[in-house]
Amino acid sequence: MTRQECVIRIAKINKVFGELKYRIDIGAIPDLATYASQLLMVNDWTADIQQYIGQEFSPTLARQIVNIGYT
Fold it and tell me: For the whole model, what pTM was predicted?
């Protein structure tokens, strides 16, 4: 995997959790079926990110990972 692919996976995780968090914050009940396919991929994306970080550590990517869900 390339650095770009790693960043894209981090962005996808952020997008999914960000959308869910937004729905909850505004008092809406999120329809999890809408997010099911993406939620099922989070485990794979996480494994890919862990593998990349293990091979090519980057403080910038580490900060992005720490901030997942807060951006």
Answer: 0.87
